[in-house]
């Protein structure tokens, strides 16, 4: 299976366009290109009931309900342009020095690389 090229990176702001969290925005915490998934901050939150257990270092880890973000399909999120402040499609432009930058199709401004 070939690895897909994602048009978003860790640190980008995205908006959910389908699913239970439609309309919510957040930053990309992690990308999983091999499966076509991204983890977005405070989106697709799930609860996990954790049992208290003894740690390998001798301490006791507390149990309880842990809330965490689950991955969401890349097709269900869109990149938010910092200039338009709206979800947009992107294209790529190759500069003379060989660098590739993402361009907003709506306002034609470059989208900066996060971080």
Task: Characterise the protein shown here.
This protein has 115 residues and is an all-beta fold. It has a domain at 13-88. It contains no helices and 13 strands. The strands form four sheets. Strands 8-3-2-1-9-10 form a six-stranded antiparallel sheet, with no helix packed on it. A three-stranded antiparallel sheet has the order 11-12-13, with no helix packed on it. A two-stranded antiparallel sheet has the order 4-7. Strand 2 (25-32) and strand 3 form a beta hairpin. The mean pLDDT is 90.
Beta fraction of the residues? over 45%
Structure class:
mainly beta
Question: Could you estimate the helical fraction of the residues in percent?
Answer: under 10%
Number of strand elements: 13
> Please, what is the average pLDDT?
90
Strand order of the largest sheet: 8-3-2-1-9-10
Features:
115 residues; single chain; mainly beta; elongated; 45% strand
Which helices and strands, and how do they pair?
Layout: E1 13-16, E2 25-32, E3 37-40, E4 45-50, E5 53-54, E6 60-61, E7 64-69, E8 72-73, E9 77-80, E10 87-88, E11 90-94, E12 100-104, E13 110-111
Antiparallel strand pairs: 1-2, 1-9, 2-3, 3-8, 4-7, 5-6, 9-10, 11-12, 12-13
Task: Please outline what is shown here.
With 115 residues, the protein is mainly β.
């Amino acid at each position: 299976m070939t690895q897909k090229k994602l048009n978003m990176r860790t640190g980008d702001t995205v908006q959910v366009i389908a699913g239970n969290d439609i309309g919510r925005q957040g930053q990309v915490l992690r990308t999983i290109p091999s499966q076509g998934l991204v983890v977005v901050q405070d989106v697709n939150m799930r609860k996990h009931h954790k049992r208290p257990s003894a740690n390998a270092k001798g301490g006791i880890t507390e149990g309880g309900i842990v809330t965490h973000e689950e991955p969401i399909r890349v097709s269900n999120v869109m990149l938010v342009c910092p200039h338009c402040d709206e979800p947009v499609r992107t294209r790529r432009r190759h500069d003379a020095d060989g660098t590739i930058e993402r361009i907003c199709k709506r306002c034609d401004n470059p989208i900066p690389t996060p971080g």
